[in-house]
Amino acid sequence: MNREHHHRRGLARMAVGSAVCAVVALVLLVPVLAQQTPTSYAPVASQEDFKVVKARMEAAKAEILKKHTDLLAERYDLSDRPAKGVTMSGGKPLQEGVRVKLPDGMTWQKLADMTPGDIREKGVWPKGFLPLPHPNHPEGGMLFPKHHIDEINKQEGRDLTRFDLDYDLPLHLLPDFPPPIFLTTRPDLGDVSKGQVVTIMNYFELFNGILNPKQLEGLRLLVTPFPQQQFNQTDDRRSALPHRGVTCFDCHVNGHTNAATHLVGDIRPQEFRHRLDTPPLRGVNIQRLFGSQRALKSIEDFTEFEQRAAYFDGDPVIATKKGINILERGSQVHFMAEFQALLDFPPAPKLNLYGRLDESKASESELRGQAVFFGKAQCAVCHVPPYYTDNLMHNLKAERFYKPQMVNGRMASSDGPIKTFPLRGIKDSPPYLHDGRLLTLEDTVEFFNLIQELKLTDQEKQDLVAFMRAL
Known about the structure:
The protein has 471 residues and is mainly alpha-helical. Helices cover 35% and strands 6% of the residues. The longest helix has 35 residues, at 2-36.
């Protein structure tokens, strides 16, 4: 009887032990399964102590940046080669020349003579024409050039440094800093920024008496920091200290751009998200499509969307956690939009009322370039004067030229429809295309010469660049 009793107890213990092991195994397996299951959401609750995360990311930073730096060096000539006698509106020299590197043994003429299918099958599409990844694409997030970080720190004591990443492109390839501000309401004043980066510290001094009270309040909100995905007070931020946040003008400095980068918020999974080159706010009053997928139809929609969604990678759950700034549509959003609508394109003294060249002021090369622009190159099919946009989306189908491939965490497969950006003032806002993969206007001409299969001559390419510099 005792033996049978002990035997039954032993079997019971074994059954319980097996059940416990099964439960433990299931608990250990759940995180693995969760990692493998696609999700649209970012993790909400941190699983690591902030100090541990920071130390781990700081330790990985050098290797991540080296990998991205090597990619840039493989793709581009990043040297400082300013064009003679050509500057941006603020006086910064414009960089010249094709910077995208060709495959060994290839020339631009040879590429232009090949069909898209041949280029794809032979794998000779220039790597600089592939989508450009974020410096750390799996991580992403807002990333600012160092000169902007330094200026904001100097004026406000607000440090936009990320402990895990640094900005990637050299200063000489970026826009004017600080860029001038031109107002549609007061063209007589010229640059109303007076050579300063406009911040919460100086906006009132610079604009009081020029703007009406609504516009002045709108500008105040555009330079007021609010929490953002990487810069906030929570333990999954990417700043060393709890942070007040970012402002609209941290990317759109002085209502223009400093080429700050980010990832679009409206695509999943992560590897398919596009790197974002910050577009200028100049001339938004004549534009009708906003947002990375151009689903927003007014500057008011765009302003509200930025604060509610784009700041937080399009994730309202994370936005609630980190401190979403819900703007009041009838006043605050309207005030911000009204100021943005005042931001004008830079002066273009060689253009007439219709946005075409005044023949008495233009050079022969510029006039030839204008003829190519409206003729053989077919640029004006999308870039319609006087502002050189059609306010539409177009799919360039660049994937005709290359096979899908992973590039430093970015799946280069297709770009999809992209907005026709205005070309007025285009020389002021390098790099080009929606993700900044084209560093100069010359790169842009070579890219579209292949995309559109135009077969432009070298002279036509040079003239086309000359014309765009005059816009």
